[in-house]
């Protein structure tokens, strides 16, 4: 309920200001190659070769990932795709971390309470394990959907009748997946060199993510933030009013 609140109109400006400019710039540029699956890259290469030459390739169309990587052209294309994917992911990640101060206070305070409560209940848990759970709230639940479908959360300004192209959605989905893996320090399974390169990037970005999440949780208590104490209400002429729907009330007590 909290995440939905901060993704609604009342908290939408934070997402728009944080992610909007970076995603807009990415989508205005020609879509680079970011496909890193060896078989997919191999088949694309074969199809392009046949289209350019007008003749059928002598190479087999169905191959394993290991066999596909034996071809220098496939490896070259994957290397380029990995560089592109890392650069694009880094750009969005920098947009997130450089706008820490724009995140809603309520979301940040909830992340702090979540971390402290887990630390109290599970004192044996490592700091890395605690921040993985905090990252699930802050990144995966709050930011990830807006990166995958920015038009659905009005993070991007789109003209009437326009929509994102399939290759643009694929690009955003790949960036979101990389950031999701980095937030959770989830490495890609396998021993291929291309996977090891991505895994090193994920591990490095995870350390930066943890530093960012530490900053997310570094917020004052509400009474300090709003300069209030137990006597503040007595001095207020117009008493505060809380607006809550029936569904929100029901969800609160579930």
UniProtKB/TrEMBL annotation:
<dbReference type="GO" id="GO:0005516">
    <property type="term" value="F:calmodulin binding"/>
</dbReference>
<protein>
    <submittedName>
        <fullName>Ras GTPase-activating-like protein IQGAP3</fullName>
    </submittedName>
</protein>
<dbReference type="GO" id="GO:0051015">
    <property type="term" value="F:actin filament binding"/>
</dbReference>
<dbReference type="GO" id="GO:1903479">
    <property type="term" value="P:mitotic actomyosin contractile ring assembly actin filament organization"/>
</dbReference>
<feature type="domain" description="Ras-GAP">
    <location>
        <begin position="1"/>
        <end position="184"/>
    </location>
</feature>
<dbReference type="InterPro" id="IPR023152">
    <property type="entry name" value="RasGAP_CS"/>
</dbReference>
<dbReference type="GO" id="GO:0005938">
    <property type="term" value="C:cell cortex"/>
</dbReference>
<dbReference type="GO" id="GO:0005096">
    <property type="term" value="F:GTPase activator activity"/>
</dbReference>
<dbReference type="Pfam" id="PF00616">
    <property type="entry name" value="RasGAP"/>
</dbReference>
<dbReference type="InterPro" id="IPR001936">
    <property type="entry name" value="RasGAP_dom"/>
</dbReference>
<dbReference type="InterPro" id="IPR008936">
    <property type="entry name" value="Rho_GTPase_activation_prot"/>
</dbReference>
């Amino acid at each position: 309920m909290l995440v939905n609140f901060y993704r609604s109109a009342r908290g939408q400006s934070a997402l728009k200001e944080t992610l909007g400019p970076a995603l807009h710039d990415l989508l205005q540029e020609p879509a680079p190659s970011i496909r890193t699956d060896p078989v997919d890259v191999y088949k694309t290469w074969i199809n392009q070769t046949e289209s350019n030459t007008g003749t059928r390739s002598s190479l087999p169309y169905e191959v394993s990932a290991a066999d596909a990587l034996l071809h220098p052209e496939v490896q070259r294309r994957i290397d380029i795709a990995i560089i592109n994917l890392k650069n694009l992911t880094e750009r969005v990640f920098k947009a997130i971390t450089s706008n820490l101060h724009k995140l809603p206070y309520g979301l940040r305070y909830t992340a702090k309470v979540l971390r402290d409560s887990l630390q109290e209940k599970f004192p044996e848990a490592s700091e890395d394990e605690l921040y993985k759970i905090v990252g699930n709230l802050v990144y995966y639940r709050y930011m990830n959907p807006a990166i995958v479908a920015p038009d659905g959360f009005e993070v991007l300004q789109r003209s009437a009748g326009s929509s994102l192209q399939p290759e643009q959605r694929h690009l955003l989905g790949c960036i979101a997946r990389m950031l999701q893996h980095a937030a959770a320090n989830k490495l890609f399974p396998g021993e291929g060199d291309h996977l090891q390169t991505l895994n090193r990037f994920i591990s490095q970005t995870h350390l930066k993510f943890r530093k960012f999440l530490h900053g997310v949780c570094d917020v004052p208590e509400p009474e300090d933030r709003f300069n209030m104490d137990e006597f503040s209400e007595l001095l207020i002429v117009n008493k505060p009013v809380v607006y809550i729907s029936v569904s929100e009330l029901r969800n609160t007590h579930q």
